[in-house]
Amino acid sequence: MSIDRIAIEATDLRKRFGDTLAVESVDLAVERGTVYGFLGPNGAGKTTTMRMLTTLTRPSAGDARIVGTPVSDRNGVRDAIGYLPEDPPVFDELTGYEQLEYFARLRDIPASAAEQRIDAWLERFDLAGDAGKRIEEYSKGMRQKVGLVQALLHEPDVLFLDEPTSGLDPRAARTVMDAIAEMAAEGHTVFLSTHILPVVEELADTVGVLSDGRIVAEGAPEALTRQVESESDSTLEDVFLAVTTDHGAAVQ
Ligand SMILES: Nc1ncnc2c1ncn2[C@@H]1O[C@H](COP(=O)(O)OP(=O)(O)OP(=O)(O)O)[C@@H](O)[C@H]1O
C-alpha cells in the first residue's frame, strides 16, 4: 500500500501522564476515503489517542502523520483536519450562526462559500430556525450539531469525531450518519470513536478495538465478527466483549 493512500498513520504512539500509561503503543494505517471505527472500554486511551492525532496532546514517544504531515507540525496537521471532541468548543455568548461564521473566518473560507455551506448544514441539521439564538440557550444535541458543522465546514481531508451522535435524537443521528457516509464517499477520511456499536457496524470500513492503550483487534467488521464464536450470528458487541475481557485471546 503506497504511503499517499494512507490518511492516518501512527507507529508505536505512546502517552504517559505521570505514572499513568494512557496509551501504551498504538499503530495505525487508515486508508484515505475510509471510515475507521475506534472502539474501546472507558479509560482505554481513545480520547488521548485522538488528541495526539489532532495535535492537542504531544506524544510521549512514537510517530504519527496525517496525510503525510507529522503531528509535530501542528499548523500543517490542523489545516488538514476537522475535530469534534466530546465537548464541542463553542462560545455560549455567540449565536449558532455567529459561531460558524467566526470559525469559517478562522479557517479562511471565502465569505460567499461560507454562507452557502453554513446555510446548507443548518438546514440539513434542522437548526436553521435556531441559528439566531445564543448557544447558551441550546440543548446538548443542538450544541453537538453546531460542533459537528464546525468540524466539517472547511471540508477537511480527515475528520476526527468523538461520539458524534451522542445526545442526538434518532432523526438527527440518522442525518449525522448519512453525512459521515457521504464525506467518506467524497474521499474524506473519517476516524470515528463511539460506544454506539450499531453506528460503527453501519459506517466503518475498518474497526480497531483499543484496550489498555493497545489495539487488540482490527479488521473489517464482517471479518472480526466471523472470528468470534457465538451461538447465533456474531455482532461487534461479541467482538468487543471477547477482546476486551481476554485481551485478544478470542480474536487474533
Ligand atoms: N490529562 C490527563 N492526566 C492524567 N491522566 C489522564 C489524562 N487524560 C487521560 N488520562 C488517563 O489516561 C487513561 C486513558 O484515558 P482516555 O480519556 O484517553 O480514555 P478513553 O478511552 O477516551 O475513555 P472514555 O471511553 O471513558 O472516554 C485513563 O486512565 C485516564 O485516567
UniProtKB/TrEMBL annotation:
PROSITE patterns reported for this sequence: ABC_TRANSPORTER_1 (PS00211), ABC_TRANSPORTER_2 (PS50893)
Domain ABC transporter: 8-237
Gene3D superfamilies, A to Z: P-loop containing nucleotide triphosphate hydrolases (3.40.50.300)
Keyword set, alphabetical order: ATP-binding, Nucleotide-binding, Transport
Ranges annotated as spanning the membrane: none
SUPFAM superfamilies linked to this entry: P-loop containing nucleoside triphosphate hydrolases
Single GO term (MF): ATP binding
Source superkingdom: Archaea
Classification via PANTHER family: ABC TRANSPORTER ATP-BINDING PROTEIN ALBC-RELATED
Protein name: ABC transporter ATP-binding protein
